[in-house]
Write a structure and sequence with these properties.
This protein has about 375 residues and is of the alpha/beta class. The chain is about 45% helix and about 15% strand. Strand 7 and strand 8 form a beta hairpin. Helix 1 crosses helix 8 and helix 11 crosses helix 12.
Length: about 375
């Protein structure tokens, strides 16, 4: 009776082998999450008050703080929808909210709203009467051409981006006479400023022209400023069929980065390391002559006279090229001429021996082998 012996790992052995990598991975993930939680800024991305990139707004945030404005950055809708009486709310570009979300912000009672490149739905709820013209003005140094105090103090600024049309009674600045990039309206007991681009207030351009003065006088109107960067949140169904909430919450990216880092650490730890070459003793030593004979038997069994002849000629040519200093890529005629001059062989015989047709039978193959052997003997012993 035959018995079988399992050769795979058992559950206990597998656990002993994996528990150390799993423990290290868990520790790495935990430490990474803690570091991300305590080191990650409250906002990120373009026009973020915490970003030091060229398209960030860290410089503007510091400028406002230096002038006594308490700047609170957030990406959370509930923070922007809280009571804002006596405070200012800046809403950055990008993101996607539905009408119900914008209405929550409108009902929060903010005293001053600053809308940076707002969407049509955002304008409809927060700045009724202001509409995008669909035209984009080239960013250039422009005069205010209005009596808005903040614009008058700033003077010439680098203005451009999306342009808007304004309702009767609105103050329009920095445009081409018809379309404007900065608009102020008074609606619902609050002041609303619409700005066509955030570029003039970014780290890369804040110091140009009067951009810093305009930002300070336009945005720093209250001691408390909430800097809201909309994401892809949604408090309910959109009655206009707009974009809904994302399938993956934004905070998941931090967990993803932590897991990727943990996998990288484990891969480096468990990966093979290149070291010195280890010489292994072969179980059987096969001599070169035996290998050659075995290969010859295979050629004979398969009647591969053409391959056998090609192998013989290739080996002979390699030695002839080396012995007579003939380039490896020399033409057959040049090779034959050189060998004929040095060995005294007939050129036609040499060409037929080295480059002729494959032998038709075993006898012809044997004759070719003998001819090549004689030629090689003359090369070795001229």
């Amino acid at each position: 009776m035959s018995t079988s012996v399992p050769v795979g790992r058992g559950a206990a052995e597998s656990w002993r082998a994996l528990r150390k990598p799993l423990l290290i991975t868990g520790i790495v993930v935990l430490v990474s999450l803690v570091v991300l939680i305590f080191s990650t800024a409250s906002t990120s991305g373009p026009f973020s008050p915490d970003s030091t990139e060229r398209d960030g707004a860290r410089a503007l945030s510091n400028l406002l703080k230096n002038h006594g404005v308490n700047v609170q950055g957030t990406e959370v809708l509930s923070t922007a929808a809280q009571s804002g009486a006596g405070k200012a709310l800046l809403i950055g570009p990008n993101g996607s909210l539905d009408r119900a979300d914008w209405q929550r912000i409108a009902d929060a009672g903010w005293s001053h709203l600053i809308l940076i490149r707002p969407s049509p739905r955002e304008l409809e709820v927060l700045a009724p009467g202001v509409k995008s013209t669909g035209q984009v003005l080239v960013s250039d140094s422009r005069e205010p051409d209005c009596d808005l105090p903040a614009a008058v103090k700033a003077g010439t600024v680098t203005a451009g981006g999306t342009s808007y049309s304004a309702p009767q009674g609105a103050t329009t600045c920095y445009g081409d006479g018809i379309n404007h990039t900065v608009i102020r309206i008074e609606t619902g007991g609050r002041t609303v400023d619409v700005i066509g681009t955030s570029r003039s207030f970014t780290n890369s351009e804040l110091a140009d022209d009067g951009n810093a003065a305009l930002a300070l006088n336009l945005i720093g109107t209250h001691q408390s400023l909430t800097w809201y960067l909309p994401q892809w949140e949604s408090s309910g169904a959109d009655d206009e069929g707009g974009d809904g909430p994302p399938l993956v919450p934004p905070d998941v990216r931090y967990i993803g980065w932590a897991l990727a880092f943990a996998v990288l650490v484990v891969a480096i730890w468990r990966g093979r390391r290149l070291g010195p070459v280890v010489v292994e003793r072969l179980p059987v030593i096969v001599h070169a002559a035996e290998t050659t004979e075995g290969r010859a038997r295979l050629y004979r069994r398969s009647r591969a006279r053409d391959r056998a002849a090609a192998a013989l000629r290739e080996s002979a040519l390699a030695q002839l090229h080396k012995a007579h200093g003939i380039p490896r890529r020399a033409e057959p005629g040049a090779v034959v001429a050189t060998l004929a001059a040095r060995t005294g062989w007939d050129p036609n015989t040499l060409y037929e021996t080295l480059y002729g047709m494959p032998p038709l039978d075993d006898a012809a193959l044997l004759n070719l082998s003998d001819a090549l052997d004689v030629l090689m003997q003359e090369v070795r012993h001229p």
